[in-house]
Amino acid sequence: MSLVIQGGHLIDPANHVDGKKDIYIDDNGFIVGVGKSPAGFKARKTIEAHGRIVCPGLVDLRARLREPGLEYKATIESEVHAAVAAGITTLCCPPDTLPVIDTPAMAQMLQSRAWRFGLAFIHPLGALTQRLEGKLLADMEALDEAGCVGFTNALVPVTDTLVMRRALEYAATLDLTVFLHSEDPWLRNGGCVHEGEVGTRLGLPGIPEAAEIVGVARDLALIEQTGCRAHFCGLSSARAAAMVAQARKKGLPVSADTAAHHLHLTEHDIGDFNTLCHVRPPLRGKHDREGLRKALKTGVINAICSDHQPHEPDAKLAPFARSEPGISALETLLPLTLRLVDEKLLTLAEAIALLTHKPAEIIGVETGRLGVGATADICLFDPEARWTLTEAKIVSRGHNTPFLGQTFRGKVTHTLVGGKLVYEALKK
Amino acid sequence: MNQGLQFDDAGRLRHLLTIEGLSRQTIVEILDTAESFISVGEREIKKIPLLRGKTVVNLFFESSTRTRTTFEIAAKRLSADVINLNVGASSTSKGETLLDTIRNLEAMHTDLFVVRHAESGAAHLIARHVPPHVRIINAGDGRHAHPTQGLLDMFTIRRHKGSFEKLKVAIVGDIMHSRVARSQIHALKALNVAELRVVAPKTLLPMAVEKLGVRPCTRMEEGLDGVDVVMMLRLQRERMQGAHIPSEHEYFNLYGLTPAKLALAARDAIVMHPGPMNRGLEIDSAVADGPQSVILPQVTYGIAVRMAVMALIMGGASASRDSGMRDTASKAHAPAARKKRK
């Protein structure tokens, strides 16, 4: 249905647009005009956007939807509803589902399930090694053909350095991007919190900063040798961010993201065993949070992701080390990023870029921009609306978030995917 | 930070989960109450009816002899009905969650749970999910806390040294894995000791331990120099496996408390150990059985201290103060009564 989004403030960082402009969308869901109506255009529907920010739909590089395998936690259906309610129109799913995404059939199944609901787009990340075992390479070419936008062993470390080297060489052969969760498993040693002040006070086994540093150093050495394009997922320490910055300066083809909660929380938020703050990699010290923020500001970190991990309530009702890590985070991705604007770390346009065209470029998908000819994946939000996160408001099946009860500024009002209005907030 | 969970709205101790967050005043109140209970154990009839009609469940997910037995004796001397449950690690493998185990026992109208668990934070988790009338005492959770051990150690120090303010204290051994060390540190800091050192090789010192207000030392010569109290810790024999120490022999040479090393401390220094001891690994028999050792009195005091904690926790609650309480050990619950009127 042809429509016009009228009177809003358009922010489209990829096209350097930041001002009052209307958007015209044709029957096929493509943008046919920005700022001025194309000749003969007739809108059958008008979305009134006065006082709203109009920006590309958000692109989330890491969200676990729990399907297949862990449907008691969440399903593709429940989570794509949560995504569009949060302004997210594109989701990347890590391959650590059950079974693992290491066959074209699995990759296609995920996309077709999402397609059926017609809400957010799902792009699978393929397994780097078969069954994520770190031994035999997965069929990367076939998985690429089936729609995988990157390859990763997710949180399962490839301990064999030679296998890692071959994986990067092979990915480089096919010009594919490898997503890395760099961590030395020996140094991690079953830890569950940052090895620091809070872990020492609570007597919880720690994961030293060195686990991440050693992991990143090893992988950078292999990237330098193989020339593979690589993306570092979920950096948690200031030093790791500095290493990626240096590698970039050297000209290595590396990018990086961090989860929104790592830009706000530290180990101190764990308080007295708050399992909602049990995440992996762990929340680290204040110095690390500041280092990550600096890396965001200087462009070393190219994307903010949700690292969404919905859980059933029981997963968090256990002693800290036995509770399952992860935050249900789709619905706080935009609010937490806007908080960085309120805190004067980023401009609004920079914040939106980190959630839209920059992550889209990492996965090589044509979205995250709103020029003429682009698919109309669009998010509208009221930048002034204040709201409080309560369990009743969470759309995701997972209610596991440490941000419950917090007040945010900025609320999504409309989400369009392929020109179709898929979410509209209820008016008060 | 623990204020919310350990105390009720009126500021009375509701659960004992950790010593962190307890004021000097609260600790002294517990020690004073314990002092009045010492005599109970020396009587012909070792019983007072303070917890008559109350059900105490000793819920041990991890094995223990000393702690479980002294808790049992303490509860029985207070006339409570005591049930010992050694759940072991197998219950979780049967699929029952920790909270389900607790809920089932709660349904049997338990008033107080004494809980030991291998995971740090287990007692906090339980305390967060029991109804308001149920009390929890942490008898050891992972590497986190063992508050009654910390308190009985303070009782022992006070009995032998009088006051805390001028004392130099060293805690020696596996600080990293020790819940006892963490409880001792919080207690000694709250009681304002003059100096507190922790002594261990770097492989057994936790990261950022100085943030707890202690001075880390890696050499016994530095750690024991002039101290008034030496608190030894048990070394798990499997620590060689994690590459924490090379051998028992080398550990004993460097960190075992021998008469020669004890000579570095003040002449009247006391030696403590939470037990069970590894003779010839962390401590020389000549020291363990020597004149400066107060290791066995620690066990005796443990009963009185655990009685005091139970009495204060149960007394500050809805526990009806029956007539039996007035005619026995009246001094014992004086502090509790004082608090209740506030």
UniProtKB/TrEMBL annotation, chain A:
Instruction: Please provide the Gene Ontology terms (biological process) for this protein.
Output: purine nucleobase catabolic process; pyrimidine nucleotide biosynthetic process
Q: Which UniProt keywords apply?
A: Pyrimidine biosynthesis, Zinc
Taxonomic lineage is:
Bacteria, Pseudomonadati, Pseudomonadota, Candidatus Muproteobacteria
Any Gene Ontology CC annotation? cytoplasm
Q: What is this protein called?
A: Dihydroorotase
Membrane-crossing ranges are none
Looking at the keywords, is Repressor present?
A: no
Amidohydrolase domain residues are 342-423
The answer on whether this UniProt entry bears the keyword Iron-sulfur reads: no
Pfam families recorded: Amidohydro_3, DHOase
For this chain, one GO molecular function annotation is: allantoinase activity
Q: Where do the Dihydroorotase catalytic domain residues begin and end?
A: 51-237
Automatic annotation (TrEMBL), chain B:
Protein name per UniProt = Aspartate carbamoyltransferase
Where does this protein have coiled-coil stretches?
Answer: none
Q: Which family does it belong to?
A: Belongs to the aspartate/ornithine carbamoyltransferase superfamily. ATCase family.
Tell me the ranges covered by the Aspartate/ornithine carbamoyltransferase Asp/Orn-binding domain, including all copies. 166-312
Q: Which GO terms describe its cellular component?
A: cytosol
Q: Which UniProt keywords apply?
A: Pyrimidine biosynthesis, Transferase
Q: Which gene encodes it?
A: pyrB
Q: What is the lineage of its organism?
A: Bacteria, Pseudomonadati, Pseudomonadota, Candidatus Muproteobacteria
Share what the entry says about its subunit structure, partners included. Answer: Heterododecamer (2C3:3R2) of six catalytic PyrB chains organized as two trimers (C3), and six regulatory PyrI chains organized as three dimers (R2).
According to the UniProt entry, what is the EC number of this protein? 2.1.3.2
